[in-house]
Amino acid sequence: MKQMIKTKKQGLLVVISGPSGCGKNTVVEELLKIRKNCYVSISYTSRLPRDKEIEGQDYYFVTKEKFEELIEKDAFLEYASYADHYYGSPKKEIKEHLDQGEDVILIIEIQGALKIKEKLDETVFIFIMPPTMDELKRRLVNRKTEDQEKIDKRFKRAYEEINEVSKYNYVVVNDQIEDAAKKIDAILEAERCRVDRIEEVYLQTKEEESHEAILQDVKTFINENIKF
Question: CA triplet 115, 102, 47: central angle to 5 degrees?
Fold first, then answer.
């Protein structure tokens, strides 16, 4: 028996942004525990790996020259320069996962997000907000991955990025990681239910089946007995 609603097979393209230190990656890790049909796109970057970062898992680490070569080959859905380094999302890999029906999550900077918005208006844009700016600064300091000058630079940039929140579809405050992940899960479930993501609707009532049968009998009769 046919299902009443048939949704499109294509997965959702989901862009998640927010200032450095807001906890984007941590929230997405929590999201993957409750939402299984998701793939987190692995970006290319020209910066060096940080402690515990793994090639092919956290990023694809390449030289600046190699990154620019990939730009020339149109290999990126989007790319941007941030803190003196390139970051880019691989076009081919993303398309393959979307075509398989997986939701693809891009954790990217606002520059790249706005480039995607210009190209693909069906993308779901979610902005992760810190609970307070004081908490954001505390998180940046506690990471202990950068000196004070770079921390100050990221903190100043955070103010600029938060001013771009109106260009996103949704905003989620990352106060409690589990709550933030649940909110994103609810957003994606709602997006799946949007009417413009439905491919076909089947009524499946006895009256509808009888109506279809009568129409088919009429078509058959016309084809067999009436010549034009």
Answer: 45
The CATH number linked to 187 is: 3.40.50.300
Q: Which helix (H) or strand (E) holds 129?
A: strand 124-129
Tell me the Cα Rg of the chain: 23
Grouping H, G, I as helix, E, B as strand and the rest as coil, residue 14 is strand
Q: What are phi and psi of 45, to 5 degrees?
A: -145, 150
Instruction: Look at residue 46 and tell me if it is in a domain.
Output: no
Distance, in Å, from the CA atom of 126 to the CA atom of 102, rounded to the nearest integer, reads: 18
What's the structural domain count of the chain?
1
User: Could you read off the pLDDT of 33-77 as tens digits, one per residue?
Assistant: 999 899 999 999 999 998 889 999 999 999 999 999 999 999 999
Backbone angles phi, psi at 191, to 5 degrees: -65, -35
